[in-house]
Amino acid sequence: MTDKTTRAGFVALIGEPNAGKSTLLNRMVGAKVSIVTHKVQTTRARIRGIAIAGDSQIVFVDTPGIFRPRRRLDRSMVAAAWGGASDADIILLLIEAHRGLTDGAQAIIDQLAALDRKTPVALIINKIDRVKSEALLALSQKLNEAYPFERTFMISAEKGYGCDDLRDWLAETLPAGPWLYPEDQIADLPMRMIAAEITREKLTLRLHEEIPYQLTVETEAWEERKDGSARVDQIIYVSRAGHKGIVLGKGGETVKAVGQAARAELEEFMGRRVHLFLQVKLRENWQDEAERYGEIGLDFRDGD
Prior knowledge:
Elements: E1 7-15, H1 21-29, E2 47-53, E3 56-62, H2 72-86, E4 90-96, H3 103-112, E5 121-126, H4 133-146, E6 151-154, H5 163-173, H6 191-206, E7 215-224, E8 230-238, H7 241-248, H8 253-270, E9 274-282, H9 290-295
Parallel strand pairs: 1-3, 1-4, 4-5, 5-6, 8-9
Antiparallel strand pairs: 2-3, 7-8
């Protein structure tokens, strides 16, 4: 490959929480590199997934959902989202077809208008299988009147509808230049962080109410064994004493089930055996500790 024939660049996925950014990222990359759950605000770090389309390398930045921040962690997540957008070569705004132009979506569009207009912004209307075609056309027209989008794509990230056309357009639109990552790399997160994200996803799926947003997972130790397997030790930090018992479950059954599910997915992801050990610890003020933010890929200062 030479500079003359290759293209590469960063594509930021932005939108409201639960708009389908993580699902689209995983669809494009062809592997699970970002948390996908039915709960909102699950993506915390700017996770970069890497896709190859012909001679183009597309580096996706899956930003946290943009919402009205209340806590320091929320503010850091929103700052990370806009940081990912401002640094990108192309921005994709995801809108849920069945929700349409919400107040939150309008606020994002207003913020987009303040960014550098030289950055192409494409509109991605997602979950098109949930609405009728007439409504889709009306929504597309309304959104394009609100902002001068470069292109509009109607897709279902979950089912794959329209994703090939989007990938082809991205491959053609990215700037010419050498690839940014090795050909066989699908994400630029270290495995320690990917492992922690997988465990946090299993906790998010298993727990209810506010608990998933009050905890974090850190990979404390990673040991490569002679037989080719890996021993992974993780700590689940909770911010309230009452949450520790809930995460553990009766007789430790909840954390055991979470560990089994996380280990199975890690083994599938890595293609080898994994020994996963989980501990649950109370750390009431973890959301105010700079070290915790660094572990999940956020800047503590952005929450000020």
